[in-house]
From TrEMBL, chains A, B:
Its cofactor is Co(2+); thiamine diphosphate; Mg(2+). The lineage of its organism: Eukaryota, Fungi, Dikarya, Ascomycota, Pezizomycotina. It comes from Coniosporium apollinis (strain CBS 100218). This is transketolase. Residues 281-464 form the Transketolase-like pyrimidine-binding domain. Pfam families: Transket_pyr, Transketolase_C_1, Transketolase_N. InterPro entries: THDP-binding, Transketo_C/PFOR_II, Transketolase-like_C_2, Transketolase-like_Pyr-bd, Transketolase_BS, Transketolase_fam, Transketolase_N. The keyword Iron does not apply.
Length: 627, 627
């Protein structure tokens, strides 16, 4: 960055690496916030997925906007990786997809120094990487001397540009080349010391007495690179000018994308409350009702699924698959690179990492959507986190949430995962209770320009509450669902457990003579952003009345808002949806007496008796067991 | 299970699949709790890792106990998988390791029906799986007709037994074979209906009018299988008898393993408090002091690392690597199958899944240890969860926790991850503050026979508190670290933030005239298991004095125990360890005034003023930003 003239990257900044300077732009790993950095790297293998996403973005834009003789998008994606990135599963998933999609605009430059932290890479890896990459659909080029044979590297890069497949350049290198520690694993992370740094300088013909001095001929060389870059930019501007004259409409659209803007007035596609069916509706179905017209019409959306098209309802009308056109005849597939529907296969982690690349490509050009069962966002968690850390907007459609997913059993029933996503900085985990709240979830997600959102949805049908539910309420994280002027208890209902909550309120009144308010609480993060006044108006913590959260997840996190919870204290169970809820005591007839007893206790002993004594009201009911 | 005579698996039980019966042992996916099930499956790809672990267990026991002419362990591990398992990264990581280790006692039977939920597998996968497996070190056998050519399948299984590598049998099948829906993706999950089930019965020469009837000749055939199994068991008992006569000591040890017992009195290897250095010590180093003698001497431990031997300090004295002896000459590696130190490479997820297989192999025979940076247990999270769900004891050594890991930056600094593991059922997340508490963490982990434990450790040096810290306190989750008879506030200190907590206590007294108690809180789950009386004696919530938790993670979860926290509300930052803490306001001189102000407010307005108003005392300090 310094050599090619990025202004912020001064010599002083270079010196700030690993220093105590708060304003360093030379952090331990590259960070997207800093000029010239495409994606934040560090966690191994993520970058492979990101690169696949960046290359897909280019492929898609080229297929959509290029015209014969006028290419407005034609860049390569170059990705430099080390030995570890292709040991990580996410890297392997991503290269498999790049080979499948024949992304010939992607080139991986593999720094094969055969050294990892534990010493020789052989200690854990003796596979034939070239054959593996070939089997996965890659063009493989060997460079056997990565130190002195610069010509071979240049030749390989040129060859990559004209490949019909993605290219893998396997360059043999020596870690710490020129140092006495050459080939030693310690050079990965430990400083070499002044003496050995001098050795390296000598090996490369530099003056070992000088420090952080860049010879003028190096600057001169890179000045040429910078000039060349400026020329390329000028050429591109000319291309755009010609394109604008010949294809004014496409050019206008392309310009919007370059500016990172939405291509259509998206709000008009969001259904109104009265448009939704009033009968029981699974919220994954509601998400289709809201999301599908958006995805069909607003071309920024790139919609993907980890092999759950029939379950996640993200396939929109007239969808075109993102595929290599060559596969049409070879595999009888539809689709081409203009397609915006992405079959990621059963590769949740790569889906997340690739979506980060798509979202990072000139931020705003695309708004990626991913989809799978909520439980399997635990596979994608490292990538979802990197999206949040980088401020990359995207929407994760997470269906089959809570124990209500039923028969697939405890392996498929998330209990602890919401705690991760609710705690994660810069992420919205939204769990809507009906179609209206699903609309609110999409609106909040699309308005969060630098934040990814997980919309957490039910497999099973849910009662609709048009008389109570509110998209504006979702935007505030929580809101009063059913008010009671004189109340004994506040019940917090969430997502697919709202139905049980409302029924419990009714039963409390009918059989226990107690009045319960109901609060809908789809998103803790959005609620935290509200004023103290608003928060207190929703929860009324000063009323002296207890607050009980009802959700079929671990209670962790609800202690901030409630005195007690009816929640999950063990893993789930393989039973049909309604029976699973019954098994774990979410029936109103089981919950109401427990809540009533709590109310009586508070009446007797005062609300302060609950201080420091958060109540998990859900015992094991004499059945089941705690793991 | 029914056909080979497993008594619990009655016809009634077979009918209970997808039913509402609480006592069904035919859940949606196989579950380890049920007789005859080796591991719980469901989440795709995990089983490949589990199978590699099971095969390693056998290899290791065989190398350790078999003698010329007497093989007490020589079983194969057979693993049946579908198309998806080798799309998942965890599956790919695991097969790479199996090939490296030349686990010729492992055979994967690949049900290649080329159909996934989205239709033809080609939609997302067109690689050459056979070539890929060969490049990864596997023997590949094709079976082109998996329906009628039973002989070819049998032949392949026989060939697998005599391979010098793991074997991959690629069997082409048709999903829903015999049904009108044959080859259709819908047969994966949807019921076929009575009419089409009749078609299948006809196709196989069964009476379509009969339901759940098993012909006598089928029972007869499987009775032979059962008899053969009984004969094999009798033979094995004879072998053990002969072995016991010739090698009485080894046989006694082997018998202990079969019983799932520890091979040595482990408690004697745990250092006493006075054995630890009193100077500043990184808790990852303390973990080496506690764990290394245990691992050296107690041979149940199988110790692994995801390429972080130099950082995680799990390499014990005289360690022998688990490696194929063939690699000694081929790659100049030490080690053989008797080795108990496992280099997993940079494959955290497979490490977790393989460790589950090791732990599931005749529960108790092994106690697997895994290790990597705590942040990268987010890669392993799906496997760690499966360990907890299956009740598989293991110890995950998670070093470089909290923002104190420093220069590697926000990508390496966990903020939200503890919330996941604290919420996860049947998992202990223990964060010790010094060497004595590290000893306590190991003791609790080893005593938790059906529960995995994460021990969360610092990269940086920590002040030792032998005058306050207590291994017995760790066993109770939290305990009084420094008591004050007359106090104004209780401070909760955790792990590497304990030093700041104790300093803040001192500063509160010196500069604000306030008395603070200090509670050490290494494990929320263990604390939850204590009596209400004990819990209240530690936190004194009824004292009317505020409680403040100090931890450099998201506050989520501390609301159960505290009124306020000094915690992290955004991702971290790349700075040296001490500077990172400074940047985020963990200096005592920044924290003490905030706590003092809270105490004053409570004195003024009463403790009830904090109800429903949990305080994140850590603002952004005018620097940094919230993502």
């Amino acid at each position: 960055m310094h050599l090619v003239g990025v202004k912020s990257m001064t010599v002083e900044q270079l010196k700030s690496y690993h220093s105590t300077r708060y304003d360093s732009i030379c952090p331990g790993h590259p960070e997207i916030e800093n000029e010239g950095v495409e994606v934040t790297t560090g966690p191994l293998g993520q970058g492979v997925g990101n690169a696949v996403g960046l290359a897909m973005a280019t492929k898609h834009l080229a297929a959509t906007y290029n015209k014969p003789g006028i290419e407005v998008v034609n860049n390569m994606t170059w990705c430099m990786i080390g030995d570890a990135c292709l040991q990580e599963g996410v890297g392997l998933e991503a290269v498999s997809l790049a080979g499948h999609w024949k992304l010939n605009n992607l080139c991986i430059i593999y720094d094969n120094n055969s050294i990892t932290c534990d010493g020789t890479a052989d200690v854990a890896n003796t596979e034939d990487i070239n054959e593996k990459m070939k089997a996965t659909g890659w063009n493989v080029i060997d460079v056997f001397d990565g130190h002195s044979n610069i010509g071979a590297i240049v030749q390989a890069l040129m060859t990559a540009r004209s490949s019909d497949k993605p290219t893998f350049i396997n360059i043999r290198t020596v870690i710490g080349f020129g140092s006495l520690m050459a080939g030693n694993a310690k050079t990965h992370g430990a400083a070499l010391g002044a003496e050995d740094v001098a050795n390296i300088k000598k090996a490369f013909g530099l003056n070992p007495e000088e420090h952080l001095v860049i010879p003028p001929e190096v600057y001169d060389f890179f000045r040429e690179v910078a000039d060349h870059g400026e020329q390329l930019e000028a050429d591109w501007n000319s291309t755009i000018k010609a394109y604008t004259e010949t294809y004014p409409e496409l050019a206008a659209e392309f310009k919007l994308r370059v500016e990172g803007k939405m291509l259509d007035e998206w709000t008009k596609y969001i259904p109104k409350k009265e448009d939704f069916p009033t009968g029981p509706t699974a919220s994954r179905k509601s998400a289709g009702l809201v999301g599908n017209p958006l995805c069909e019409n607003v071309k920024n959306f790139l919609i993907g699924t980890a092999d759950l098209t029939p379950s996640c309802n993200v396939a929109y009308n007239k969808k075109v698959d993102f595929q290599s056109p060559e596969l049409r005849t070879a595999c009888n597939l539809n689709g081409d690179y203009t397609g915006r529907y992405i079959h990621y296969g059963i590769r949740e982690h790569a889906m997340g990492a690739i979506a980060n690349g798509l979202a990072a490509f000139n931020k705003g050009t695309f708004l990626p959507i991913t989809s799978t069962f909520f439980m399997f966002y635990i596979y994608a968690a490292p990538a979802v986190r990197m999206g949040a850390l980088q401020g990359l907007q995207q929407i994760h459609i997470a269906t089959h949430d809570s124990i209500g997913t039923g028969e697939d059993g405890p392996t498929h029933q998330p209990i602890a995962l919401p705690a991760l996503y609710r705690a994660m900085p810069n992420l919205l985990y939204i769990r809507p209770c009906d179609s209206e709240e699903v609309a609110g979830a999409f609106i909040s997600a699309i308005n969060a320009k630098e934040t990814p959102t997980i919309i957490s949805l039910s497999r099973q049908n849910l009662t609709q509450y048009p008389q109570y539910s509110s998209r504006d309420g979702v935007a505030r994280g929580a809101y009063v669902f059913i008010e009671e002027p004189e109340f004994d208890v506040t019940l917090i209902g969430v997502g697919s457990e709202m139905g049980f909550t409302v029924q419990t309120k009714e039963l409390l009144e009918k059989e226990h003579g107690l009045k319960a308010r109901v609060v809908s609480f789809p998103c803790q993060r959005l609620f935290e952003q509200q004023s103290k006044e608003y928060k207190q108006s929703v929860l009324k913590p000063k009323s002296g009345k207890p607050i009980v959260a009802i959700e079929a997840y671990a209670a962790n996190g609800w202690e901030r808002y409630a005195d007690a919870s009816i929640s999950m204290r063990r893993f789930g169970k393989s039973l049909p949806s309604a029976t699973t809820y019954e098994y774990f005591g979410f029936q109103p007839k089981i919950m109401a007496p427990k809540i009533s007893a709590l109310v009586e206790e508070v009446k007797r002993e005062g609300i302060e008796s609950l201080r420091g004594d958060f109540r998990d009201l859900n015992g094991y009911l004499g059945i089941g067991f705690e793991h």
